[in-house]
Design a protein that fits this description.
Helices cover 19% and strands 38% of the residues. By secondary structure, the protein is α+β, with helices and mostly antiparallel strands. It has an eight-stranded mixed β-sheet with strand order 2-4-5-1-6-10-9-7. A two-stranded antiparallel ribbon has the order 3-8. Strand 9 and strand 10 form a beta hairpin.
Length: 135
């Protein structure tokens, strides 16, 4: 089980303004490869833009304070944003979290088609995602 930084998610009330900032001020490019297919009928239907530095994606997501309630999950990854890692073995990572006594919300594929996702908090309350691309 290995982890690799995949994306940073920023939650915002103005996706267009934030996208322009990250493209115009930071010079990031629009991401067109490997984009997630959002499951807009399963709990989160917000707008999302994707930019990249060529290695790591930034997902600029419309803030949604109620997505966790709609999906029945405690951790809401689009209330304040999150950092995301991709793993090659999500089940092994979930076993690791349980051994470390770290509770997590298992969103499975409720937000992104073809991805299995879990979300949890670090000690300061930052949201961390770990996902695996489903076979």
């Amino acid at each position: 089980m290995k982890l690799k930084l995949h994306h940073i998610n920023l939650a915002t009330d103005n996706v267009g303004q934030m996208t322009r900032f990250y493209r115009d001020v930071l010079g990031l490019d629009e991401e067109t490869d490997g984009l997630p297919v959002l499951e807009k009928t399963k709990g989160y239907a917000g707008d999302v833009a994707f930019v990249t530095d060529g290695a790591v994606q930034t997902h600029i997501a419309e803030k949604d304070m109620l997505a966790g309630f709609r999906t029945g999950q405690i951790v809401n990854p689009v209330a304040t944003g999150h950092i995301a890692y991709r793993t090659d073995d999500l089940d092994a990572f979930k076993t690791h979290l349980k051994a470390q006594n770290v509770p997590y919300s298992d969103w499975d594929s409720a937000a992104v088609a073809g991805w299995r996702q879990i979300f949890f908090y670090d000690p300061d309350g930052n949201v961390v995602e770990v996902h695996e691309v489903a076979e």
